[in-house]
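Fold this complex.
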Amino acid sequence: MTDLRVEIVTPFGIAYQADVESCHIPGALGQFQVLKNHAAMLSLLSIGSIKIIEKTGSIKYLATSGGFCEIDKNEIRIIVESAELSDTINVDRAKEARERAEKRLQQKMDEVDIDRAQLALARALNRLKVAKFR
Amino acid sequence: MATLREIRTRISSIHSTQQITKAMKMVAAAKMRKAQDSILAIRPYAYKLRDLIADLTATVSENSGVPLMEGRPVEKTLFVVIAADRGLCGAFNSNIFRSLLDRLKNHQQDEYAIYTVGRKSYDFFRKRNYPIEDHKINFFNWLDFQDAVEISRNLVSLYKSKKYDRIEIVYNEFKSAISQLVISEQFLPFKPDEESEQDKSQVDFIYEPDKKTILNEVIPKNLNIQIWRMLLESNAAEQAARMTAMENATTNAQEIVDKLTIFYNRSRQATITTEITEIVSGAEALKE
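Structure:
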């Protein structure tokens, strides 16, 4: 039997790669869990946390800012623009980003800027949330 | 003829210039290394994204509903020039300007505009009164993925607003430490890579949500990564060009120092010889 393999790829290299027990993924239509022999699937990812249960039973959390994931033949390929393990998240930076985004939301702006600030806020909040699972 | 002291000053001044060029070469080499590593790091991500797009475009029948892939008759083109923020890197900047100027000869003034990336390209085209749509300057030193995202987002919104019907990017590709190549690529409308378009044996994938929504998400992501790649390539190429230029400058400085040293020794010797002759002839004169 082959194992379930997870590979998380970002523009800065491979963020995580291992054989795992299972993996929770923040899909665009809702969170879902992938176990061994999952059906082939392609899904959008929203901002959220990826939870990985490793072979040893220990649990890893990663904060992601959205992307895609492809599941095929017991291989999960997660293709995202950022993925940070909970213990490598820079909490101070995330807090700064949150404040910046909140400040910008209070000013009057056109729609595009509001969208951007809201996304930035969501990313910062997500980071802070995931950073708590150390 | 220059006095001995003048020559000495000259030698030491050239020597200190040489030390600066030597240091700049080392710095450029280190920065080039770093840039090369980043280029390697994005590869797996870029390839995966490309395969994904190839799969999706192969199975989505028509491209309608994917605005970034729909072409339209080209009336106005936007040229994006990626050059450096700084000079002292040989012909790096002027090569890219020359190549773009050649291209522009075939266009009327009202058919295009330029989006300059890097301070050198902004200065160059602004001084010559070319139509500039926008510019992004002074960021290569702290190059960040967000810079690429910002540029890509601007370009996408310019394309979507129909201000431009085609966007092309001109940049220096990093071929090796000693050679750079000016490359021009179409950025929008988006064309999937020809090479990777072979059809993989299609398993019945579950798509969540549907293919078109995914495609509309994946294309902007891919554009981000393309801009990021080009910025990194250009940055690596710039550092490589600077490294070569500074290497040459160091060698040239050494040559001048060598020549001047020989000249200095020769004139010193000549002065001594003259002095001895004077003393000897003075002594001879006293004898008589």
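The first strand of chain B starts at residue 77 and ends at 82.
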